[in-house]
Amino acid sequence: MDKKLDIISLNRKAWNNVAEKYDNAKYSKINPAFQFFCKQIPEGGSILDVGSGTGLPFAKLFLEKGFNYLGIDISSQMIKIAKKNVPLANFKELSMTDLDFNEEFDGVFSHFTMLLLNPDMFKDVARKILKSLKSNGFFYLSLNEPSVKTTDLDEDVICEIMGEKMYSRAYTEGEVQEIFIPLGLKKLQIYRETQNSKEFGIEYMIVFVFQKNG
Ligand SMILES: C[S@@+](CC[C@H](N)C(=O)[O-])C[C@H]1O[C@@H](n2cnc3c(N)ncnc32)[C@H](O)[C@@H]1O
Can you tell me the distance from the alpha carbon of 139 to that of 118, in angstroms, rounded to the nearest whole number? Predict the structure, then answer.
């Protein structure tokens, strides 16, 4: 059986089922790396939000900052909620594994979404994100790092979140850099924060802001 299709179907079903709970939890928060990323984008610049979720808080904030915004998400339920939450933003039902843009965006934004991919899919989506970015464009990526105790990163990759089984994997700083730097990105900033929530427990968030080489 095709592993890629498995993960995509599993995660689509899971996120459709948790969409309403995720919206009610108002889980996602802004952080200093988000503000830094926004400051790099030219006035009226274009943003692709990969896995836009409920649209809150990020789609709303990108619109308030005057950016030209497109959010894509694999979950039709998430898209439905996002359109209700942020009616003036553009949202499209699409998997990040099917991105097909050519140097169209000043910024690509991925907040807690690429961790839902296995390493092969991650590398493939990384190439597609690079292709979507204009030269000198910016890429924001937030993920979870493994806890210090984790020795085998591929252990427990099928986890239960809000009562739904889905694929999610921690990535190390080294793994992320080994994928993006050779593709032609330079690292501008790394930000770390430990988060603790009822829904997801303790998470070691790491955020990268990269710039595509000109
Ligand atoms: C943890 S939520 C983050 C949502 C949003 N970025 C935020 O920070 O609030 C993960 C989101 O990624 C979406 N997602 C999962 N797999 C995806 C894929 N292959 N392509 C696009 N979106 C995906 C889910 O439907 C969900 O909305």
Answer: 20
